[in-house]
């Protein structure tokens, strides 16, 4: 669904914003999995999105796993019950977290309009697309500063939801998978009329450089 299709009376609704943010997470996670070499190149295919070529996994198990999570994420976003999503890249053998991609989510409060002032105009589709493009370009450029991953890895998705959020029975509580003495790089952010998403990546420092 296009960004334009989510607009209602010029403003993006909370439900429409939830769809946009969820779609960003879906493509963003796929892009990170490709750029960081979590799966072989031949298990990805290029899709056009946000005016960019984005590599997406064609592994049915990976996509099924992500879709199940994103169904709940979209529902919670539309209810304002989620504040963070994390993609953790873990060493398969050592079971250590090597990278932690964190996306903080905030509801955009409606600003109080003083008498005589004009309300804040809705964000344009172009402005939103440019903000999202900037994040994907940073993900692609991350190979220039992140350590090379030489071991086989898996990944986990952590979702931080409110205590009253209805959680699927197949989900379990998880360790936050923090990285001790991690290096952190803050990435760009984007916002709709209803949500703001701020991104950062933490990674394990190369012991040879310490």
UniProtKB/TrEMBL annotation:
Subcellular location: Nucleus
Entry-linked InterPro entries: HORMA_dom (IPR003511), HORMA_dom_sf (IPR036570), Mad2-like (IPR045091)
Domain HORMA span(s) in chain numbering: 15-201
Pfam families on file: HORMA
Annotated keywords: Cell cycle, Cell division, Mitosis, Nucleus
Key word Cell division present: yes
Any one GO BP annotation for this protein: cell division
UniProt keyword annotation of Cell cycle present: yes
SUPFAM superfamilies listed in its UniProt record: The spindle assembly checkpoint protein mad2
GO cellular component: cytoplasm; kinetochore; mitotic checkpoint complex; nucleoplasm
Predominant location: nucleus
PANTHER family from the UniProt entry: MITOTIC SPINDLE ASSEMBLY CHECKPOINT PROTEIN MAD2, MITOTIC SPINDLE ASSEMBLY CHECKPOINT PROTEIN MAD2A
Family classification: Belongs to the MAD2 family.
Entry protein name: Mitotic spindle checkpoint component mad2
Species assigned in the record: Coemansia guatemalensis
Gene name for this UniProt entry: MAD2
